[in-house]
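Good morning C.,

I know you're traveling, so I'll keep this short. The sequence:
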Amino acid sequence: MVVTAVGPNFATRHNPRTTMTSPPDLHQRLARTLITAMNTAGTPARLISVSTASMGPGDAAMSAGPRLLFRFFRTVAVPNLGRVGQDLRAMEEELAASGLDWYALRPVKLTDGPLTGNVQASDRFAMKPISRADVAWHILALAEDPAPRQQRTPVITTGASRKSSPPAPAENPARPGPETAPRNKHPAPSRQWVTVAARSPPCPADAD
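The tokens, ready to paste straight into the viewer:
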């Protein structure tokens, strides 16, 4: 099990309006390194990463209005967000071609809010925030669930009201739509973990 939540560095922390000091292809290069290492190991493994729903990779899930809004924001208002989005799109392409059991979670707007344990994962775009604590909680829930998921690049947001419930496994497909994560208390004892984490990718909220 490999979890990566690495994000770019800027001259001022969490401020993409300032100079980006990390490599522009940070996420793609890291994905290539992890994929090579995991394939070389020769054992089945899962790779979970954090991507974005608002900086490019999630455009296909948006309607025309949000797509134009975010495109303007990342190309005109804060070009660094567009550069990070291109890198995350390249990362997802590397993962898709890897042959691994991989997932790239796509938050729309990250906050420093509290943990709710109520996360909605969907193939549809929703203009809703999610706390960094809930992203971490969802990563753990996904890591502890041995069943593969149908959605490789879900848009994740804080759910409406109820606690998360287990999703349908890939072997028994359900209708496309929102998917919620199970909350398991203990990880599988036989699973080995490797975590690569510096900071999560920025979202438009970080440029407010």
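Safe travels,
E.
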